[in-house]
Automatic annotation (TrEMBL):
Active site residues according to the UniProt entry: 94, 193
Keywords, ordered alphabetically: ATP-binding, Cytoplasm, Disulfide bond, Methyltransferase, Nucleotide-binding, RNA-binding, Transferase, tRNA processing, tRNA-binding
Cellular component terms per the entry's GO annotation: cytoplasm
Source organism per UniProt: Nostoc commune NIES-4072
Protein name, entry field: tRNA-specific 2-thiouridylase MnmA
Localization terms from the record: Cytoplasm
Function of the protein: Catalyzes the 2-thiolation of uridine at the wobble position (U34) of tRNA, leading to the formation of s(2)U34.
Length: 351
């Protein structure tokens, strides 16, 4: 029988992914990564739901404590990034370094199993012509999580199954109900796990970073107001600045070194290009000449036409057909050819 290790968070998506594979005849082993202390998904509540699901399916369930790894690669990464004036994206980093990497390693080394599955909404296909695994958007575009998965290596993609990639979310709920899964009616997680477990990103950061009062200035250096720490702001932010001005003002630079938040009008936060580092090429090998693609510079943004110019050291320059608003250092830029993820990386600081 084909064996698969299914990553279980205790939510309806991973539960249904496990149930589908179980009903397809796979020998399923449930695996929950213990990511952090506290209540909520990825913590003890999630583990109990995952254990109950495995009991219901009659499959084994294992828990691996990787709280130290999560602390180093996600919590410390976020705190260091925010204090340096960038807005790091934890999810793609978490998928590669905390979830898929350790899951595949544990499956191979401890369970003698070479396949893993998760409840992500994305698809993987193998291209015979190039010998590469391709990452594709989910059929349910509203749930598509390919943006967060661009950093997976070929080895990890080769080992992974996404049983929900061809389904609409409503199908997932229906299948969960048909199978009578205990998690069938469990509400969706609405936000980043750290935001859910701490109430807000501000509350999370306040646990690690002390308030540090500084000036909010315009591009000429004129003081317009005060802030309580650059880590509380993000590029393109308009609300919550506490400044009265004739025209709308946006955060255009976070100068952590001088503890200043710089604001300006919309034109100052709209750029024709940016550079991207730590690039991972997914569905195609790194090209030697510029390519045309469609890029997303944040999770919910619409893919927009771009020229991707390869640079040295796993970097690229993105030149947008239309200048883009609020390009945020630390967030991922992921470029597609239609539904296919070509590559992605982390937007670099450009001040
Ligand atoms: N702590 C964990 N241990 C093992 N696998 C996990 C864990 N957290 C998430 N995953 C896997 O990653 C997938 C996507 O996680 P995400 O945080 O986006 O949850 P989700 O879309 O709300 O899914 P779910 O409904 O399963 O919680 C999950 O479906 C699951 O397979």
């Amino acid at each position: 029988m084909k064996k698969v290790v299914v990553g279980l968070s205790g939510g309806v998506d991973s539960s249904t992914a496990a149930a589908i594979l179980h009903h397809q005849g796979y020998e399923v082993i449930g695996l929950t990564l213990w990511l952090m202390k506290g209540k909520g998904q990825c913590c003890s509540e999630g583990m109990i739901d995952a254990a109950e699901l495995c009991e219901q399916l009659g499959v084994p369930h294992q828990v691996v404590d990787i709280r130290d790894l999560f602390q180093t690669h996600i919590v410390d990464y976020l705190v260091t990034g925010y204090s340096a004036g960038i807005t790091p994206l934890p999810c793609s980093q978490c998928n590669k370094t905390v979830k898929f990497g350790p899951m595949v390693q544990y499956a191979r080394e401890e369970l003698g199993c070479d396949r893993i599955a998760t409840g992500h909404y994305a698809r993987i296909s193998y291209d015979e012509a190039t010998g590469r695994y391709q990452l594709l958007r989910a059929v349910d575009r509203n749930k598509d999580q390919s943006y967060f998965l661009y950093d997976l290596s070929q080895d990890l993609l080769a080992a992974t199954i996404f049983p929900l990639g061809e389904l609409e979310k409503t199908d997932t709920r229906r299948i969960a109900t048909e199978y009578g899964l205990k998690t069938a009616d469990k509400p969706e997680s609405q936000d980043l796990c750290l935001v859910e477990s701490n109430g807000s990103m501000r509350a999370f950061l306040d646990k690690y970073l002390a308030p540090k009062t500084g000036d909010i200035v315009d591009v000429t250096g004129k003081i317009l107001g005060q802030h309580d720490g650059v880590h509380h702001y993000t590029i393109g932010q308009r609300k919550g600045l506490g400044i009265a001005a004739a025209e709308p003002l946006y955060v255009i630079e976070l100068d952590a070194e001088n503890n200043k938040v710089v604001v300006g009008d919309r034109t100052k936060v709209t750029q024709p290009e940016c550079t991207v580092g730590r690039v991972n090429w997914v569905s195609i090998a790194e090209p030697s000449t510029p390519i045309h693609a469609q890029v997303q510079i944040r999770y919910r943004s619409t893919a927009t036409p771009v020229t991707v110019i390869p640079l040295e050291n796993s970097r690229v320059r993105l030149v947008f057909d239309e200048p883009q608003f609020s390009i945020t250092p630390g967030q991922a830029a992921v470029w597609y050819d239609g539904e296919k993820v070509l590559g992605g990386g982390i937007i670099e600081q450009f001040s």
